[in-house]
Each structure stands twice: as C-alpha cells, then as structure tokens.
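$ ./design --mode recover --in tokens.txt
reading tokens...
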C-alpha cells in the first residue's frame, strides 16, 4: 500500500480532468490518514465529503476535517455584542443539518455518525471572530498519508461538492513528498493544518465538534444497513454516477419514475420523440424531461441535448438534476461558473459532428440561447438533436419562436401553463413545433394524488378610492380609442394602447386600500412563520395630484408592505426580487425554510417561474393580472409539499370599483365596474373551485354575478395588458 505506483499530476482542472476518478479515489484507497480543511459546514457538504473515503476507512485509516460555520448577520452581530460565541456557533451548525433527500444520503449520514462515535472521523470548527474580520474561515487545503510515510498535499479553489467536481471551473495544485522539490511545500501545508487543528493560529478560534450537532446525526444510524459494511459505498465513490460511461444519460441509482411520468415518456416516444408535458408545478416535470433524455439516447444511440430555461437560477436548478442523471453539462449564460463555456460548447459541437462523442448536454437561458453566437453553433447540429424548453409558453412570443430550429428532430416542451393568454397564434405555433400533449397532469389531480398540498382560499375584497376610480375611467376611455376590430373579427390594440393598459393594470395592482386590508388580514399571523407576500411591480399613487400617463409618483407597493410588516408589526421580513443576487436568494430560501430569522418573504415577479420554496404555508397575493399563467404559477409556489404542512392558505386581494351594495346598474360607472369584475371573477373561480373551502368563494362569486348580471359563460373584456404582450 503506497503512493509509489500511482501517477500523480502536478495539478488538476475540472475542465480537463475527472478529479474524482484520477486523483481522489486512487489516492484515498492507498491512504491511512486524511486531513482536510474545507468550506462551510452543512449536512449536504458532509455527505459529499463522505464520498471517496470508503477505501481509506477500509484500510483502518482516520480522517480529520476542519469546517466553518455559515454565520448569519444576526449571528455576527450577537457575537460582536458579547454573546457566547460557542452557543451561537452551535446554533448555526445545527440549522445546517437538513433532511436528506434520498435513502443513500441517510445511510451516509448514519455511517459518518458511526465513524465519529468510533473515533475514526474527527471534526473541528474554525471561525474568525467577527470583530477581527468577516467572521468566516474559508481556507481549502488537504494532506493525505499512506502507510509508508509518504504524503500528498493539495490546495486550490475547490470544495468537495458535486458542482465543484463536475460543473464549476475549479483547480487544485498537488505536492508529492516523493518528489524532492515538493517536500518542503508538503511539510508547510501539513504544519499549516496541524497548527490550525491545535488552535495555534492567531485570530482563528477552533472548537470541538459540538455534541448537539453530533446528536442530530445519530437518528440516521438506523438507516445503516448491517450487511453493507464499509464496502457498501466502494462503488459509489464517483458521486453516485451510474455504472455506464460518465456523461452518458442514465436514471440515477435509487430513482424510480412514477407511472404517470413513464406513461408521458412512452407517449412522447410513440409520437416520434416530439410533444408537450403539460404538468402542474411540483409534479416532476424536470425528472420526466430527463427521463425522456435517457430513453431517447437508449433508442437513438447518439444525442445532442439542448435544455433551455428562462432564467439563470432555473438553469442552476436544472444543473443539479442533470448531474444526477449522469450528464456533465456545459452551462451557458453571462455569469456561468464555467467561464470558458463558449469554448466548451464549440468543442462539444465539433466533437459531436466528427463522431468523437455520442452525446453532450448544453443548458442555457432563453437570452443566451437566442444569442447569435449560440444560434450559429447549434445550427450545425441536425437530426440527432433534442431540444427541451422549460416554461415553454415563453417561446410562443414572436422573437423566441424564430429560434425554434426546424433541424432539431427531437423536441420536448415543458410547461404548467402552455396556453398563451390572449395569444392563440402563439399557442398554435408552440403546438405546431413541439407536437401534441403527451400528458396533462393538472393541479386538481396533483392535489388529489398527494403530489401537492390542498389549500384554503380566502378572497379579500378592496375597492378603488375616488381618485383611483377617476384615473381608471380616464384610462379606459383612452384605451377604447386605441383599439379596433379587424375584418377577421380580431381585436387589435396600438402600442400606445398597450402602455395605457399596463398603466391601468397598475392601478388595480397598487390600490391604496390593499395596505390597510393586508394589515387587518395578516395581524392574526403576526407571530407565525413561512409566509409569502406577493406585491405588484407598481407604486401606490395619489392620482388626485397626478393626471399624467406615467406612474412615477407615489411609494412602491413593496416598500409600503415592508414598512407595514417590519416597522409597524415588528415582523422579520426580507425581499425576494431581481435586486438580490443568486447567492443571496439561496441564503434567503434556506433561512426562510428554517424560520430563522425570516418570518415572511416579500416578493415581486421573480418567484413566478420555477423557484422552489416548499416551506411557504401562507400566501397573501396583493397583485395579480388577469393572465392565468401568472396567477396559476403564483398559486403553485404555495402548494409544494413540505414537512409539517398539511395544507396551505391563500389570501387573494380582489379589486372592485366600489362595494356591491353601492353599485347602480344605471350609473355611469356600471359598465366599467362590470368589466373589471368579470376579469377578477376568472381568478376567483379558478382559485376557489378546488379549495378546501370552495363554498366561501362561491358566495362572493354569486354576489358579483348577481349585481353585475354576469352569466356563467360570460367572459371578461379584452382590455388586459398581458393579453396584448404589454
């Protein structure tokens, strides 16, 4: 046993090397001691750290890890105020212990817990006191020993995570004591680690791994199967890649698709590998799509996979699942962790053209996919290409529809809301390109079959104040002058009309009474957690002081809501908007899920498509357009399954021009009020029909229909901003 027979490179880069297979596994299998200083502690990071050490444990070896707590701003402030650092550190570590997502991960945590109990694995916690610097220790070094006294040391940018090994552009520099010129550097890194382990480093505090955190791992020991032994993880050390060739699409070990997912894939195959998966949020569209990739490759033996999602954060979510399906994607967008993604994509396309590789995967945003660079490269691909478009309704727009390459033989659209509101041509274009629906798995079925949580629905009615109503009527008159009916009977609106429609929709979204109504409605939840408040991208304006067509005056609704909740009601809230970075959003999601410190998220549109925060239990929707896509997506955000969430609650703020008992059917406001009521009714009916308390919504629906003489089949008017693409 030793390093003498191994080929050890001077350095490894993820864009050139399989660092797991080429470095970690062969070295650790020859080792008896592993010392590693890594990044932030979490249960998921601990699981990743476990992968690769099975060979070392089998040798009777020992492991020493130094980790760092992820301190919140509140933690740092408390330490600065003199509160006991140890207790705060323990709390920070405990909140990073998350419920594992698979039985394999549970087994790994159980195995690690046993290794800690048996003294094989030792963990210490290092942090820099906040009054010294930033409160985080984030060094990354490793020292590994074989049984012959040889050492290998390495340092670099890489953490031990799936993203670091397979997606990010990361590198390590390696020093080998068998190489004469490396010996001093090896000893220096060894001394650095040992000095830190012994808490001899100035301005760095090192604590023993807290017992309270260790105790959080103990329950997982029951998942440790006695007949597995240490060999159980031997073949899984390459990050649970399937036993097929790395990069070839494969169903992850331990994953079984549901019957409805397999049925959808079979229908797609039968339809020539073209079609639409119309599936409600939370029913597994991503896994169904990736399952289709696996089947397509099995049948075609050669496949270029292009996956397109609207936003960067959705691409990142796709990457996590793509890796599980054994693929190593090239990630294309402006802030991609793969800084050389353009070169990677060019190489992939060329290698695929020349037959050097049989498959590759490129995942990108709508914007990057539409760029001239990407379009030119992908145009070189042909019949062996599969295009998957997530949230495919977006591609019904004129600009994006022009990027649907007719050369791509295999096509798959994913969407919970494929039909484009007010745009039948765009909807038809999508169906013509992608094909027919292979599955229609709606919200009602998803709730009935336990894929989404049931919910209670409470409409909260508010009314326009006098200045808002006058402004609303004025805009309605101007809009009527910007519309005309074509010879074919189609309603058209001018560009100015679209802007006026948008301005009018903002009056409804930002109605002043909504703030007082929110205060009254949310007061009983003042001490509750896991709440979401959806605001409009609008301002609360005093129209008696402004008669222009702009919306520049007044306070933003999200600001007014934040003042109400944070200042007046003393609730702990945070924003979730386009102003927060992707990293900040991830921290917000994690802390919100733990209800520490945030009780509520105040959001605008960026939560609409694809962001998963299952722990939301109560939602207050202050603003919705009449576009079903938007309000269906917003409802879907609230219905994700989560522990201790038997149901969700939705408060929907409905705007009418005046109380129903004040409506005069012969008054000048009647026609205007009726049109608005019809538009609001569509959402109330959709939300109310499958709610647990459907009768509560029915009472309001009946009252509105009676007062405004609206029949069941009486649709709303056409003057809606989203309907015309504004």
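writing sequence...
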């Amino acid at each position: 046993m030793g390093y003498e027979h191994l080929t050890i490179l001077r350095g490894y880069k993820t864009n050139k090397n399989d660092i797991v297979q080429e470095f970690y596994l062969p070295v650790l299998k020859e080792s008896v001691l592993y010392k590693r200083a890594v990044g932030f502690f979490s249960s998921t990071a601990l699981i990743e750290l476990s992968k690769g050490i099975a060979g070392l444990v089998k040798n009777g070896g020992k492991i020493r890890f130094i980790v760092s707590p992820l301190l919140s701003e509140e933690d740092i402030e408390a330490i600065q105020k003199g509160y006991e650092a140890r207790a705060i550190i323990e709390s920070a570590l405990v909140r990073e212990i998350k419920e594992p997502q698979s039985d394999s991960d549970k087994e790994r945590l159980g195995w690690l817990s046993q290794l800690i109990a048996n003294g094989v694995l030792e963990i210490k916690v290092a942090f820099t006191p906040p009054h010294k610097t930033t409160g985080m220790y984030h060094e990354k070094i490793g020292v590994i020993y074989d049984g012959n006294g040889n050492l290998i040391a390495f340092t670099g940018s890489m953490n031990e995570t799936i993203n670091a090994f397979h997606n990010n552009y990361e590198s390590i520099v390696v020093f080998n004591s068998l190489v004469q010129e490396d010996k001093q550097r090896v000893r220096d890194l060894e001394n650095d680690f040992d000095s830190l382990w012994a808490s001899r480093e100035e301005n760095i505090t090192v604590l023993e791994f807290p017992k309270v955190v260790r105790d959080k791992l103990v329950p997982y020991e029951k998942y440790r199967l006695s007949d597995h032994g240490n060999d159980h993880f031997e073949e899984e050390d390459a990050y649970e890649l399937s036993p097929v060739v790395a990069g070839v699409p494969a169903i992850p070990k331990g994953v079984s698709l549901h019957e409805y997912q397999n049925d959808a894939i079979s229908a797609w195959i039968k339809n020539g590998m073209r079609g639409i998966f119309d599936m409600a949020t939370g029913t597994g569209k991503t896994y169904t799509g990736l399952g289709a990739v696996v089947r397509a490759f099995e049948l075609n033996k050669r496949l270029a996979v292009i996956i397109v999602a609207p936003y960067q954060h959705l691409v990142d979510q796709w990457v996590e699942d793509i890796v599980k399906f054994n693929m190593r994607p090239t990630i294309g967008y402006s802030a991609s962790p793969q800084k050389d993604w353009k070169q990677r994509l060019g190489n992939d396309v060329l290698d695929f053209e020349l037959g050097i590789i049989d498959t590759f995967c490129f995942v990108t945003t709508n914007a990057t996919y539409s760029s001239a660079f990407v379009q030119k490269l992908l145009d070189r691909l042909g019949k062996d290409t599969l295009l998957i478009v997530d949230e495919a309704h977006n591609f019904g727009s004129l600009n994006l529809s022009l990027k649907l390459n007719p050369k791509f033989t295999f096509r798959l659209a994913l969407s919970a809301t494929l039909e484009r509101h007010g745009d039948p041509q765009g909807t038809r274009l999508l169906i013509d390109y992608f094909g027919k629906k292979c599955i229609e798995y709606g919200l009602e079925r998803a709730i009935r079959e336990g894929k989404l949580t049931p919910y209670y629905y409470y409409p909260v009615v508010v009314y326009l104040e006098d200045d808002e109503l006058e402004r609303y009527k004025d805009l309605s008159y101007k809009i009527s002058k910007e519309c005309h009916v074509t010879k074919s009977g189609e309603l058209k609106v001018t560009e100015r009309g679209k802007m006026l429609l948008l301005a009018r929709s903002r009056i409804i979204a930002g109605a002043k009474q909504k703030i007082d109504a929110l205060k009254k409605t949310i007061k009983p939840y003042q001490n509750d957690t896991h709440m979401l408040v959806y605001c409009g991208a609008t301002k609360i304006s005093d129209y008696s002081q402004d008669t222009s067509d702009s919306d520049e005056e007044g306070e933003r609704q999200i600001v007014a809501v934040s003042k109400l909740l944070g200042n007046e009601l003393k609730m702990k809230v945070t924003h979730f908007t386009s102003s927060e970075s992707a990293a900040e959003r991830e921290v917000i999601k994690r802390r919100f899920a733990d209800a520490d410190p945030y009780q509520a998220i105040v959001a605008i549109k960026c939560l609409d498509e694809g962001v998963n925060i299952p722990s939301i239990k109560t939602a207050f929707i202050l603003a919705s357009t009449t576009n079903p896509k938007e309000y269906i997506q917003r409802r879907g955000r609230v219905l994700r399954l989560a522990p201790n969430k038997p149901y969700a609650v939705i408060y929907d703020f409905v705007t009418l021009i005046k109380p129903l008992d004040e409506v005069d059917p012969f008054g000048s406001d009647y026609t205007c009020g009726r049109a608005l009521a019809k538009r609001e009714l569509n959402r109330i009916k959709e939300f109310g029909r499958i709610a647990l308390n459907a009768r509560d919504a029915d009472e309001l629906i009946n009252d509105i229909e009676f007062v405004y003489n609206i029949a069941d089949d009486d649709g709303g008017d056409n003057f809606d901003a989203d309907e015309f693409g504004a």
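exit 0
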